[in-house]
């Protein structure tokens, strides 16, 4: 649209064409800066190394005769360059990022690695900026650059702070670059990493128990492989970001499932095998995957989830039966409220939990309730006495058996 073009690009030679063409020499400078940051992870270190290499900012000659640029990079210039989506073939306009008509200079994998390092560096206390811990070596996000959404956009790590807490997410790259898209993914990082680890662990456990990891099962070494596979699954389930990063080759999310690919070399090393011995079918996993709203946050439901009792609902259900029993014995609502230091409306709304269908109460006790079902959803309206209606409005399947 006019103005000074960025380093790496020049205006189209045809003045009637409003576009950009790559400047090969400047593109090498841009690529060098990106690679330096991917290697060093520190803006000040990149600034010093770029100066030593003789890298310079874009020099522009105005029609008035004035010249601009051509100097060593400042720290701010390096940061702005690393954050500019123009180098992956996109254009930022205000809060939106659009696909451009110009050629990309940086590949998306390098871009994702650099953005992840920038995010991790911005989250570190100032006294630690520039230091490299084991945590930052594997990255604060072990799935960086590995997952794509259903349209092929990579999930990029980001974070926010809420009430003094740092919350990590994986976000479709078109969102983190400033764009908006209701179809983009925004997933809680810890939950996603654990879900992926659990899916891989369950997959390997099933393969090991059925002796299906190797192309040709060996009865003599089968037990040893099974033992190593079970050890590997336990390490994944307990949280091993380095292991998760190494063993995961990539994957893609869709609305109802996730596809994951494993690295044959890394899996073989963990199991004491040669990569050629690994059954190719063992390297790809497809599992159920869904992000469901639960209160104000999203809950990831992946694979075949194990029952997970909700402690808040269990506590409320126990109190409901206690308070209902007191009412039946003749104790007034006001006396119960005074004894428990709650308001009468608080006791009234929660006591009705005792009138949930027995099958629903049993499901809550076992942790088999729908993931989106919360205490708030139940108590916001009076509980209907019809058990089938309860099952429908609280999200239980129609085959819920009532006594």
SSE order and pairing:
Elements lengths: L8 E3 L8 E3 L1 H17 L2 H10 L7 E2 L5 E2 L6 H8 L7 E4 L2 E4 L8 H16 L10 H5 L8 E2 L6 E8 L2 E8 H4 L9 E3 H21 L9 H20 L2 H7 E6 L3 E6 L1 H8 L12 E11 L2 E6 L8 H18 L4 H8 L3 H8 L6 H9 L8 H5 L7 H7 L10
Parallel strand pairs: 7-11
Antiparallel strand pairs: 1-2, 3-4, 5-6, 8-9, 9-10, 11-12, 12-13, 13-14
Helix pairs in contact: 1-2, 1-4, 7-8, 12-13
How are strands sequenced across the largest beta sheet? 7-11-12-13-14
**SSE succession:** EEHHEEHEEHHEEEHEHHHEEHEEHHHHHH
What's the total helix number? 16
The percent of residues in helical segments reads 40-55%
How big is the Rg?
Answer: 28 Å
Distance between the termini: 71 Å
* Low-confidence runs of at least 5 consecutive residues: 125-139
Instruction: Write down the overall mean pLDDT.
Output: 82
Percent of sequence in beta strands: 15-25%
How many strand segments? 14
Q: What overall geometry do the principal axes of the alpha carbons give?
A: extended
| Oligomeric state as shown | single chain
Largest sheet: 5 strands, mixed
Estimated structural class: alpha+beta
Tally of individual domains: 3
């Amino acid at each position: 649209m006019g103005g000074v073009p960025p380093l790496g690009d020049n205006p189209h030679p045809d003045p009637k064409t409003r576009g950009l063409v790559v400047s090969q020499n400047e593109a090498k400078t841009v690529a060098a800066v990106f690679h330096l940051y991917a290697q060093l992870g520190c803006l000040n270190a990149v600034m010093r190394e770029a100066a030593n290499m003789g890298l310079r900012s874009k020099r522009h000659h105005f029609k008035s005769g004035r010249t601009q640029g051509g100097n060593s990079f400042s720290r701010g210039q390096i940061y702005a360059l690393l954050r500019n989506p123009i180098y992956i073939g996109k254009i930022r306009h205000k809060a939106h990022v659009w696909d451009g008509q110009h050629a990309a200079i940086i590949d998306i994998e390098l871009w994702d690695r650099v953005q992840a390092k920038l995010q991790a560096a911005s989250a570190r206390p100032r006294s630690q900026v520039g230091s490299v811990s084991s945590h930052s070596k594997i990255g604060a996000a072990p799935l960086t650059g590995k997952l794509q959404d259903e349209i092929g956009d990579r999930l990029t790590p980001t974070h926010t702070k809420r009430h003094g807490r740092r919350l990590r997410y994986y976000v479709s790259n078109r969102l983190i670059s400033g764009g908006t898209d209701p179809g983009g993914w925004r997933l809680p990082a810890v939950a996603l990493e654990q879900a992926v680890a659990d899916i891989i662990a369950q997959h390997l456990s099933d393969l090991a128990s059925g002796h299906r990891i190797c192309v040709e099962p060996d009865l003599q070494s089968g037990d040893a492989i099974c033992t190593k596979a079970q050890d590997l699954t336990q390490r994944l389930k307990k949280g091993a970001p380095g292991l998760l990063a190494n063993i995961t080759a990539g994957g893609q999310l869709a609305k109802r499932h996730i596809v994951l690919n494993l690295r044959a070399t890394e899996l073989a090393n963990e199991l004491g095998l040669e990569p050629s011995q690994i059954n190719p079918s063992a390297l790809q996993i497809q599992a159920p995957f869904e992000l469901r709203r639960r209160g104000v946050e999203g809950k990831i439901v992946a694979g075949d989830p194990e029952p997970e009792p909700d402690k808040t609902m269990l506590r409320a259900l126990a109190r409901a039966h206690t308070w209902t029993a007191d009412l039946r014995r003749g104790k007034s609502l006001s006396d119960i409220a005074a004894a428990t230091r709650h308001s009468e409306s608080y006791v009234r709304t929660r006591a009705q939990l005792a009138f949930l269908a027995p099958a629903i109460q049993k499901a809550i006790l076992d942790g088999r309730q729908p993931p989106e079902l919360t205490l708030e959803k139940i108590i916001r309206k009076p509980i209907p006495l019809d058990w089938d209606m309860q099952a429908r409005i609280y999200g239980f399947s129609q085959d819920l058996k009532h006594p």
